[in-house]
Specification:
Elements (H helix, E strand, L loop, with lengths): L10 E5 L3 H14 L9 H9 L3 E7 L2 E10 L6 E9 L8 H14 L5 E6 L4 H10 L3 E6 L18 E7 L15 E3 L5 H7 L1 H20 L3 E6 L3 E5 L2
Parallel strand pairs: 4-5
Antiparallel strand pairs: 1-2, 2-3, 3-4, 5-7, 6-7, 8-10, 9-10
Amino acid sequence: MHDSQFAPPGIAIRPLASVTEVFEASALLAEVWGGDRSGMPANLLRALAHSGNYAVGLYDGARMVGASVAFFAAPAARSMHSHITGVLPALQDQGLGRVLKQHQREWALARDVGHITWTFDPLVARNAHFNLRVLGARVTEYLVDQYGPMDDGVNRGDESDRIMVSWALAAPPVPTPDDDRVVASVPVPQDIAAVRAASPVDAAAWRTHVRDALVGHLADGLVIGGFDDERGYLFVRP
């Protein structure tokens, strides 16, 4: 499966079949993450691609503009973990991330994979919106400082808290809960990247506040049922 039925005209998704394509994808992902080449080294990407995992490039004509990498979980889990997906900054917010995720879904279903998991930074509102409202994935864990210190241009100087989600590929999207089910909410900044650039101290305060609130509600037996652009994370009783 090379092209996705969801791709707009001129956009194609192809496996990273050659060493040249692997190095191009590694460099592209480094550019997306602020110049850090440790996020997806070319040698590891080549190994993942060659051993049958999901490793694709997103092309606008002949130019690679995005890439995505996922690997299989334990066989009995029938699951795949999406490690990294990125689109060049100039082409973000044009729906190409959704094209990649839908292609990933098609690819996984064709291989009898039932779920795709991935993590995202809970402070990034647009990712929370996309993962929980658009795709309808389900939150499974809150992970404190999951990756330890990260030295890329996006995460440098911050702790790497992450939310783990699971996307049930054959099930309907998890809907945003009705207001009468919501028992608590935790807001996040609209643009944490702008906050980080303006004041690392304020960004660190947001990290601590959101972590404490989310972990506290989860410890009380609530679950994250969805995300609202104004109210933030919405908690419900399971």
